[in-house]
């Protein structure tokens, strides 16, 4: 997807037809405090010169227009009301995780099922993922660096620092949205926030910053307070996945760089990692359910000239065999369509292979085991995982949130979520005084419960 510069953002929003990625360049260092209590400028002095973050560093967001913009622009009796809906993803995810949900929202708006006016969707990429730069550079996350340098690096990977990035992007988008209609000086802008997992923690810190943002509605997805008892005791599924992950890490770390040149070994390694991640984010019932016909055709007829598709023969061969068996023997019990597990495994592994090809260009040569073990955008994910581990909301934070949280607020969680336990989600919603809604699925309810989630979003944005 082509990236557009944000210098003249307001001018090309009017002509925007589909999703477009925008680059924002931020000069200020994050305003979050370091672990030692010093400012981030002091923390940066602990880093070597070659590890100092770039100035300015790049942030990115995907902009999409939905709703009826033409009729709202004609009405000259009142200032045009524009809704800006900002989506913040979780650990290691980019704006692509929201595209299917935004597409469903657009279809419902175009089908005249609801009226949301003119709505601008802003899908934010956190630092280190998507089109946003890895900030700060990754080496101090590794074990081979000095403790002081590591502490200075990790202090810049907090939910507060990520919230500062999101606030900067939102300020740019809101300013460009206000400049859309020059005929009305008092253009009404309504801001809605949606966050998933770590994205919800970022939204909490976004509400706690000063001066506070004027937010009309907020939706938390798979979120809890971050206390010790919210994580423990962990679910049995999460424990099994953690054991499988550490065994995978040991196996991957012992593979030499020369062995990873073998495409088959590389594919097997990535497929094992993909299976672990799928078991944590989706329920067994969802992964075993049949795939939609359109997605089945795209899987079976993927172009063989594409390198990532050509290397996944064993996944597609099983899908082709299952489809051929189902068409030839439709009355037999063992005939079955393609399952969602095969579809997500195919896409996950194909994307990972593309990242793996560029891994040698960004990896730290001093930590070859880490380079070999986790080629899936590892350093950005590690930094965001650190933000999750140190994220806590105190009682004072909850009291401030209760005052600043908008009237239209809700929390949605998956019934079978192994990462954020349903009881912890309900306790967080009760502490804030907002409704908690249980949906079918596991951690990634944006895929499993996409249809009811889209309806809740439309109810939130609708005036």
Automatic annotation (TrEMBL):
Signal peptide: none
Superkingdom assignment: Eukaryota
Pfam families: Abhydrolase_1 (PF00561)
Domain AB hydrolase-1: 85-435
InterPro entries: AB_hydrolase (IPR050471), AB_hydrolase_1 (IPR000073), AB_hydrolase_fold (IPR029058)
Protein's name in the database: AB hydrolase-1 domain-containing protein
Organism annotation: Cyanidioschyzon merolae (strain NIES-3377 / 10D)
């Amino acid at each position: 997807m082509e990236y557009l510069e944000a210098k003249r953002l307001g001018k090309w929003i009017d002509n925007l037809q589909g999703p477009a990625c925008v680059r924002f360049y931020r000069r200020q260092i994050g305003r979050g405090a370091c672990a030692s209590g010093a400012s981030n400028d002091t923390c940066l002095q602990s880093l070597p010169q070659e590890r100092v973050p770039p100035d300015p560093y790049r942030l990115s967001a995907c902009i999409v227009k939905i709703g009826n913009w033409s009729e709202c622009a004609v009405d000259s009796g009142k200032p045009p009301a524009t809704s800006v809906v900002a989506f913040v993803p979780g650990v290691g995810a980019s704006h692509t995780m929201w595209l299917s949900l935004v597409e469903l929202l657009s279809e419902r708006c175009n089908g005249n099922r609801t009226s949301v006016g003119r709505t601008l969707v802003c899908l934010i990429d956190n630092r280190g993922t998507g089109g946003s730069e890895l900030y700060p550079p990754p080496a101090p996350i590794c074990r081979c660096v000095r403790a002081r340098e590591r502490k200075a690096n990790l202090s810049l990977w907090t939910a507060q620092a990520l919230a500062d990035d999101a606030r900067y992007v939102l300020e740019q988008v809101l300013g460009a949205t206000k400049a859309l209609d020059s005929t009305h000086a008092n253009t009404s802008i309504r801001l809605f926030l949606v966050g998933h997992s770590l994205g919800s923690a970022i939204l909490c810190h976004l509400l706690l910053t000063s001066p506070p943002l004027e937010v009309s509605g907020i939706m938390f997805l798979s979120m809890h307070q971050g206390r010790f008892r919210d994580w423990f005791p962990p679910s049995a599924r999460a424990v099994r996945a953690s054991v499988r992950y550490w065994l995978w890490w040991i196996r991957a770390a012992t593979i030499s760089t020369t062995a990873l040149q073998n495409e088959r070994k590389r594919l097997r390694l990535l497929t094992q990692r993909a299976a672990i991640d799928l078991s944590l984010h989706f329920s067994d019932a969802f992964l075993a359910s049949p795939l939609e016909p359109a997605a089945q055709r795209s899987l079976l007829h993927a172009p063989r000239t594409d390198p990532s598709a050509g290397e996944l023969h064993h996944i597609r061969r099983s899908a082709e065999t299952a489809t051929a068996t189902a068409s030839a023997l439709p009355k037999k019990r063992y005939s079955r369509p393609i399952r969602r597990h095969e579809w997500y495994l195919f896409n996950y592994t194909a994307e990972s292979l593309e990242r793996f090809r560029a891994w040698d260009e960004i990896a730290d040569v001093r930590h070859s085991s880490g380079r070999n073990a986790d080629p899936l955008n590892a350093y950005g994910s590690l930094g965001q995982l650190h933000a999750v581990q140190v994220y806590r909301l105190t009682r004072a934070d909850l009291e401030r949130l209760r005052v600043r949280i908008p009237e239209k607020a809700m929390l949605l969680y998956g019934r079978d979520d192994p990462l954020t336990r349903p009881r912890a989600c309900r306790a967080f919603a009760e502490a804030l005084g907002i409704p908690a809604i249980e949906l079918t699925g596991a951690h990634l309810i944006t895929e499993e419960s996409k249809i009811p989630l889209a309806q809740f979003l439309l109810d939130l944005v609708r005036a």
